[in-house]
Every structure is written in C-alpha cells, then in structure tokens.
C-alpha cells in the first residue's frame, strides 16, 4: 500500500495511491482512518513530504564503502563505527518529491546528494528486540540527505551543511509492502546513473538501529530513521535533476535551483 | 503574560496563567485564540511542556566559563567557538515541570543538570537582522539539558547522552514579558544553590543566533532554541530534586528517579 500526503483546499490529507488515483482519507496511517469518498488524480495533487516527523533520526555513517571513500578524499584513516549511534536531522529542511532543492547563495560547488532509505515508524515503541523491531515499522520512503561538503568540514555541527531549507527531500510516498533484502538504491543525475548499491548492505541494519535506539528512547508514530548512504557523490548545480530510486519503494526526483 | 500547556479531559489546551488561575483558550499563542470561558486552578492542571517544537535547536557550548571548566576536567585546551553554529536536541526527551527525570538503568553516576534559557519562536522567520531578531520571539522558558557525561564522551553522537527519554525538562510556562539583560540563572540541587550566573553572559547572544540560523533556515512558530549553560555541574541521583530558576521567566523543578 502507498500512502501519500498532500494539500487540498488549503488542508492536509493522507491518501492511498492506487494506479494513478488517490483515495482521500480522514485520519492518517498512524491512527485510525476512513475513506472520505473523494478521489483525486495523482498527477493533480500537491504532494507534501509523506510525514512530518516528531523526531527526525539519521544513521549518518552506515556503509563501509562510503566511509572508506570519504576518508580517501580527506586523506585520513577510515573510521568504521563500532556502535549503532543514531544522529539527527531537522524537519525544517524537508521538502516533497518534485520540489526544488535550493542551493544557498554562499554555498560552494560541493552540494551533493546522498541516497537514503527512510524507515517510517508506525507505533509507539520502547525496548524492542532486534527480532521484533520491524513490527513497529509502518513502511519505507526515499530520502536525499543533501550535503554542502565545505560546511560539513568547517562548522562545529552539521546545521547548515545538512539542514539548510530544502536540503531534505523525502518521498514520494510511504510504501508499506517492501522487503529490505530486495531493495537496490540507484541514483541518477540528469538521467545518468551515478551510484548503485544494495540498500540493505549496511554496517548496522534497520533492526539493529531500532533495537538500540529503543533501549533509551521511545519511538513515536511518524518518527523517521534515515539509514545512511553508500559510495561517493558528485556535485549538483542549478538546472540539474537528481533522482533516487529504491526498488520496491519508489523514486524521489527533485530539480536543483539557485537562491 | 504566562502561557501554560496542559491536558484536560484527554485533550491538550493552552491557557493563560494569572495568579493561581488558568484561563483556558481555544487555539494557541502561535496563531489566533479565544478564551473558552473555562477557569482552572493552576495547582490542579496536568502541565505539559509549554510547546512541542517542530524543530528543537540547541546552542550547546555558549558560555566561556563552561568551556574552560569542561576542558580542565578533560585535561584538554579550552576550545571557544568562533561561530554561532547551532545544534539539535530531540523532542522525544521533553518532559514538563514536575515530571521525573528517569536515570536509565545502565547510566553511570555522571548524570548532570545544565540550566538553559529557552527561546520560543512565535513567527515564521527567514533572513532577519540581529537588530530585529527579537521580533520573532514569543517568549522565554527554562530548560534542563540533562546529560550523561560518560556517554557524551564515548558515543559518536549525543543521542543517549542528551536525548534519552525524560532528559529534556522544559517549563513551567512561556513568559512573554521578560528582559534578557535582567535574567539571572540559579540552580538548586536539593535546595542547595550550586550555580548562579548572568543568563545573558553568552558567547553569542539570542539575537546573534537567530540572525545566523535564519540565513539558511526558516524558523517556525513553536521552534525552540536552547541557549547553553555556564559553569560545571554536579551529579544527580534518584531522590534528588533539581530546580532551575531564571529570574523574570520562572522556576523549573524536577525530581530524579531511577528506571
């Protein structure tokens, strides 16, 4: 099942996407819902990010090749994490599928994509085992963890490097029927394939992260966990189009614009 | 004016505190509101954190003495920040005035308070100058940036060190009439004064942080910016009571409990 979130008549709705139609609902996938009876054409709705997360978690470093290639670029030793320590991103930066990633006017040319699997939490959860961890997952989406590399290196935190307005495209929807083992992540920049990797080839998997987080932290419905990216990225510039496909989940496409 | 947020009959309300009475409103201080006509006794309402922030910003290091004393403890050189780089905390960890700070069962004895001024944003704001920055501030509250120091030193991020459930007491209310220059922050542990400092004696002030953030990031109504703490803290243990007063704003009091 594919859940979309969108604006209609100035209000925010969830809907179920079937083919090219969206069945509008009252309520949300996170509590109860009923179909309103209204049908929309998918092409005519104004998509929003599929959820506005109460807390926005991000694994950051979670693929070995990404760590090794980043270290090579910086001339440092690769530092493979030995624990599933979660990080954070900021909801202000979320945009929907199709909306432009706006490069701040004083950014350098090093504005890069990072293709990430997004785990959407469906149920309030504390102290869950790895083997039961997927029970609290509503579904999956696609995220682009856009990063300005010079700020990432120069600033004390990753506030503007990773969280400038529009730097967190997420969507187009939440797919509830998908298997982690089957997913392949592909990035295309202006239709040219630039990265391809097995999505689940993580240092610490979805189950491990959820189990570790919930030893200390309650996960709530609508929370998202972005799972990190593999490989090394290219720069994006105004006029480019960045497309991230995770097979079985969906394809997130955003144009790049200048401020 | 003092804004409280509370639960009544299973619903969440904002109210205006006058003396020992709370005037219930429909709506919120962040948009429009009307008084409902219902009055509560302040002592009988179930307080919530005064806002559930869309994005939860935190300055982290923002007082020189705190940097110097932390460096002395670690045997390192003090590293005074030269830019107002904002950081983040997580909404899952917020609790209200009066609720217990629960020490996780595997935490060390180094669970410490940090007394912080909380700036509550009232208006959507981008690209604001320092001189106009306070125009977007609805008011102020008090925060306790509870920290487990061994995890803060050992983990790749501050996820459990600073964001374990219940580690972010905030309240008791939002005070809209307060002057930064007049505020004094006082911490009392079991009624013994342990820290006292001029709240506004920051490396980078409220206006500077807001102006810097909004060069890249839109602030939204309800966002909070925690401004950092001064001095060095003592450990807290189950049975203790930690009280943070910011004169002209309010007093946040929380008992410590074990898991």
Order of helices and strands of chain A: EEEEEEHEEEEEEEHHEEEHEEE
How would you name the CATH homologous superfamily of the largest domain in chain A? Answer: Fumarylacetoacetase-like, C-terminal domain
**Count of DSSP strands of chain A:** 19
Quaternary structure classification: homodimer
**Largest beta sheet of chain A, briefly?**
12 strands, mixed
Structural category of chain A: mainly beta
**Mean pLDDT over the full residue set of chain A:** 96
Taking Cα atoms only, what radius of gyration of chain A do you get, to the nearest Å? 18 Å
Q: Kindly estimate the percentage of residues of chain A that lie in beta strands according to DSSP.
A: 35-45%
What distance lies between the first and last C-alpha atoms of chain A, to the nearest angstrom?
36 Å
Poorly predicted parts of chain A: none
CATH architecture classification of the largest domain in chain A: Alpha-Beta Complex
Outline the structure in words.
- The structure is a homodimer of 259-residue chains.
- By secondary structure, chain A is mostly beta strands.
- Helices cover 12% and strands 39% of the residues of chain A.
- In chain A, a hairpin with a 2-residue loop joins strand 2 and strand 3.
- The first copy, chain A, is globular and about 60 Å long.
- The termini of chain A are far apart.
- The model of chain A has no long low-confidence stretch (mean pLDDT 96).
- Chains A and B meet through strand 7 and helix 3 of A and strand 7 and helix 3 of B.
